[in-house]
Amino acid sequence: MKKIAIVALAGLLLGTVSCKESEFAEAYPDPAKIAESTVEKQFTGVLYANREYVLPGYTHYFTTLRLSLNPYTQAIGRLNQSGLYVPGSAGVENVWYNYYNMLAQYRELQKIYASRPADQQADRKIFMLAAAIYVYDQTQRLVDVHGAIPFSEAGMLSTNGGEYASSLAKFDTAEGIYAFLLDDLKRIATELNGITLNAGYQKSFQTQDFINKGDIAAWKRYANSLRLRLLNRVSDVESMKTRSNTEIAEILGNATTYPIVETNAQNIQINVFDINTDINSKGFQGGLASDGWYGNTAGKAMIDHMNTNKDPRLPILFEPGLNAAGKFIGIDPLATEAVQTAQYNAGQLAIYNRYTTSHNQFFPGVIINAAQMNLIKAEYYLRTNNDASAKTAYETAITQSVEFYNKILSLTNATGITGSTIPTAATPASVAAYIAGDGVSWAKATTNAQKLSLIATQKWLHYNVVQPYENWADLRRLDLPVLSFQVDNANNQTLPPVKWTIPGNEITYNAVNYSAVKAADNLKTKLFWDVK
């Protein structure tokens, strides 16, 4: 691994990718021909660069998520060993450099676009707007785990003519990046409302866009849904409260001008159509389920909540241990390592359902979905004292979450799984009964604090291992649901961290710029939106 300036150059070598690496190799055997890239192909290169960190790829789940985010949210269980709350350096670096590889390709896209005459820029503007939305989404994700990161000056090695020293990037503050993203996404949302494409470029956009297939309406929903997510994330930050409430009200009150994802048919995700292409989820099995219980063993809190409340998603998301007599049992985070190990070895612990998740090679790359949006709406309506709308959004979200996992189950191509049978899809009647149950019912929660806990719990259940970054961010921001962790007194990091630290190579090679953020670069300094 090298610093950002160098990884930017490496990123350029994939910048002209369409949908297959083989196609790139055939069309561009000489990396010196990178200057011949087009706006259209470079746009796809941006999307392609981090596809395995949006689709459930092996490296992401195995080296990063099983050792950090997923156990920090208790979406999975972990052995109580010393050091379990210290993020693995390899996993953190993989996420860091994957992001900057993508960002370098985005900078190259900007460079290519800027070199075109005005008429060509006008024809290809949609590629720039869509690429920015996607990059901003991934930027929020990195900010939410690290805080301050290099952004505004990062990935500029090619733009700066290969001048290495001038391409070392400063660290932008997390709050500053959020403000920029919100400003520019609002600009993009407005610009998308007035954009038109001629037939030729509409076809080109459809061909190169493997997320929304050239659907401009979907990109509008993506932009505004991302705005809603960012605005909700900063809703408790004193300096941003007014903006958060004003702009959320503007978005939710003007569906025609600022559409968001409202139904599962509108979900923003990378769909897998042919597992023999590079757009597939073949790595999910190895990433989630290849290391015994470390990757996919159920946590006790989640399983207990689903059992107690007869959650219709339980048999879709999990399968019982081989010797558990059909019972769903999660690993107790407060038990000793010996007890946990014995329980696992006895085949008692539930795991994520292999038909739905790990062995499902058609599992989509989840970006934004309807249940997520309605849970954000429920939270907003609750804090603005609109209880009726909060209730509607909350209950709609639950229904949509069940539909979401039913749909994913229906896509599965998993075969040859021993000790389990393919689960049955949840029924509308089971969803209605769940929503009316004591531990889920909105009407039976008597205070706003209790209702916020209901919303937070449904986010946690819906996100699980599928949207781990959203899960960890909301858990830190809301401190809900309340989870118990064994204190690791043998290590300086006694409980789960509140963020990641900057990777070592970046510290070494970008030392001057790093010095500005060094004081806050530890596992205990909260992000600016984590104020509770």
TrEMBL record:
The keyword Lipoprotein applies. This is SusD/RagB family nutrient-binding outer membrane lipoprotein. The keyword Transmembrane helix does not apply. Keywords: Lipoprotein, Signal. It comes from the Bacteria. InterPro entries: SusD-like_2, TPR-like_helical_dom_sf. Pfam families: SusD-like_2.
